[in-house]
Structures are given as C-alpha cells and as structure tokens.
Task: inverse folding
C-alpha cells in the first residue's frame, strides 16, 4: 500500500510541474510550432516565394521570378511600332502551389496593355498570319462559306489545303480586317478546298461464265443454256476531292446483298467437215430482182437478190472455200465446194470474210453485199452448180 502511494505521488508531481511550465511559456511554444509547420510546408513545395507583377498600374499576373517576364517584355517591344514605356514592378509574396500565372498569359497581358494588339482569331499560312478577325465564330463562318460550293450531302469534312491554322491569340491591330475584307482575301488567294465524302452505293457483282462442251455443236458455236444473273453489293467508300475533283477513292466496307448466278454456255467441239448436207438456205433475205434463165439474149446462170451494201451474206450450206478473190465480171466473189457434187457462187461482194481452203458451216457469214464487177447496183448474184452445171437456185431454196 505504501509503494502504490509513492508511485502515484511521483506521476502527479511530474504532471503538475509540466502544466505549470506550459502556462508560463505558451506564446513561445505557439510561435515555434507555427514556424516548424511553415518550414515543413516550404520544404514540400506547397508554398514558395514569388511576385505579383505590374506593368505600370496594370496587373499582369503572379510569377516565380523577374527574368522571364523582363525578357518577354523586351521581345514584345521589338515587335511593336511604339515600344511600351511603362516599367515592370515586382511585389514579393508567398505563393501557394498552382497560384502562378502561365508565362503565355503574362505575355498576352503585356501585348494587350500596349494598346497596339487585340485578342482575336488569326488566319495563318505556313506560320505567317495573313489576317485576323475579332470573333472566332466569324472565322468559322468565313471558312464554311468559302468551302460551301464543294460540299455535298455526303461531305464529312471540308478544309483548305496546306499548312493553314485558325488560332485564338493576340494579334497586331493592323492585321484585323472586317468580315467582307477577310472574305475577299480568301477569294484572291484562291485556296484549294479539300473535301472528304462518305458514300454508300449499290454496285453490281458481275456474273461469271461457265462453259460446257457440246459434241453436237460445231467448234466456234456457242449456245446459251442459262443466262444467269448479276449479284449486288453495298459498298461504303471514302472519297477525297480537291475543288470537287476526285483525287482518291477507298472502299472501307462491303456487304453482299445478292449473290451472282453464273451464265452457262454450251460450246461446240464438233469439227467442220467441209462437206455439205445437200440442203440449201437463202444466202440473204432480200427479194429476187432477176431470176435464173434467159436474160437480154444470154443465159443468166443464177438468181439476183436485192440487198444493201454491207448486208451480211451467208453460206447456203456447209463446205470448203474453193475460191475467195476478184473477177472482172463477178467482182469480189466466193466459190464454196460442198464436196457432194454441188458448188455455190456469191458475186459482186463489197467484202470477203473467208479465205481459200477454209471450212465453213451453213449460215456462216462469209461476205457482204456490194456492187463490184459488172453490176448496176448493190445486190447478190447467187448460183448453185451441180457437177459444174448451173441449176436454178430456187429449185433448192425456199422462195
């Protein structure tokens, strides 16, 4: 019990003496505490020394040092017609972190204080400002009006070509122009307008052609078994234009709407024999102008058919070209040997499309109606000869 009382008295005595000390020296301790707190804040960078800077009586901002602002004033003075005469005044202060004025803003304020510069939006080409307007909305309207003739409903952007910028800044008063003056400058400079368009179009996917061999058709003959159909696709493109003229086009997406169906053709593999069937067809469609038999006191060995110069002349039956050339009387003419005792003659042609020894098939175009040789006008003189004796063609072909 005595030990406990003794320890209690010691603690109580220390407490009473400490309380008495703090009461006597409280002001000193407060000052020391504040000093230590301020010192700690400075060491962490939360507070630091700076300056409120004025140009004459005009407040420019808060800076950390004098040199940068003085240098900025010197540079600006060099660009002004009339240098600023007012002096810079710096007033020390404690600055809280984030409380400094950006250097660009201080420079801007110096320019405005000069009275020789104004805030606005400048039109700059390759780093040189051509003009300025007071409202940024005016600059946007100027560009919009200048580019308008080259815009379409599909235009996504329209800009002037080149290193051109529109910047909000402070510019010399002499660069400021009215809206109409700015519009005239753009027109005189004739800047190219670059536009980008986003277009979605429907395009055709062309059908392919598939060929099937047919041994019942002659070589060179083609028979369409199925026409097929073209497909369709939706294509989205980005189109770049200069002054409305396309300079590039890029497809960025495609969507197939309908697949194509191939065209099917049957192609002949049967070789021409050069031998006729003995069945003859009309070589032209024209009417008969002079028949087989006696004419003007002489034997007319064939049938003349009316026709226009250049009209197709067809082989009356399959066979082999015996002659394709010119004769004084027949003019340009062709003889086809049908290898069965029959030959057919086609005279007064304007053009010949076959050559000696060529195998032809019935109905094949071999020449064109003309008026060569002894002829009074465009027509076809046609003969059928059997064993070299002329026969009446109309006994073999339909009227």
Result:
């Amino acid at each position: 019990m005595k030990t406990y009382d003794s320890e209690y008295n010691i603690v109580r005595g220390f407490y009473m003496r400490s309380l008495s000390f703090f009461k006597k020296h409280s002001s000193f301790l407060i000052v020391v505490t504040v000093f230590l707190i301020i010192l700690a804040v400075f060491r962490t960078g939360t507070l630091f020394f700076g300056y409120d800077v004025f140009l004459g009586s005009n407040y420019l901002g808060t800076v950390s040092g004098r040199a940068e602002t003085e240098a900025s004033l010197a540079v600006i003075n060099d660009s002004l017609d009339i240098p600023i005469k007012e002096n810079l005044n710096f007033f020390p202060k404690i600055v809280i972190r984030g409380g400094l004025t950006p250097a660009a803003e201080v420079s801007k304020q110096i320019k405005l204080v000069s009275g020789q510069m104004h805030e606005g939006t400048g039109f700059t080409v390759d780093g040189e400002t051509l003009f300025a307007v007071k409202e940024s909305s005016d600059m946007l309207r100027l560009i919009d009006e200048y580019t308008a003739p080259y815009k379409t409903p599909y235009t996504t952007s329209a800009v002037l070509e080149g290193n051109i910028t529109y910047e909000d800044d402070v510019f010399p008063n002499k660069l400021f122009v009215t809206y109409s003056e700015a519009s005239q400058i753009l027109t005189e400079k004739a800047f190219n307008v670059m536009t980008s368009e986003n277009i979605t179009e429907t395009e055709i996917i062309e059908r392919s052609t598939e060929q099937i061999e047919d041994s019942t058709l002659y070589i060179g003959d083609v028979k369409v078994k199925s026409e097929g159909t073209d497909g369709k696709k939706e294509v989205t493109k980005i189109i770049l234009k200069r002054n409305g003229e396309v300079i590039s086009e890029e497809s960025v997406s495609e969507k197939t709407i309908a697949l194509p169906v191939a065209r099917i053709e049957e192609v002949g593999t049967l070789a021409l024999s050069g031998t006729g069937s003995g069945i003859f067809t009309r070589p032209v469609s024209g009417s008969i102008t002079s028949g087989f038999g006696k004419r003007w006191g002489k034997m007319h060995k064939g049938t003349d058919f009316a026709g226009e110069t250049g009209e197709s002349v067809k082989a009356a039956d399959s066979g082999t070209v015996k002659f394709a050339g010119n004769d004084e009387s027949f003019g340009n003419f062709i003889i086809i040997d049908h290898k069965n005792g029959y030959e057919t003659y086609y005279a007064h042609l304007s053009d010949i499309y076959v050559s000696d020894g060529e195998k032809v098939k019935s109905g094949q175009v071999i020449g064109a109606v003309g008026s060569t040789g002894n002829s009074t006008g465009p027509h076809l003189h046609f003969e059928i000869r059997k064993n070299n004796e002329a026969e009446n063609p109309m006994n073999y072909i339909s009227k």
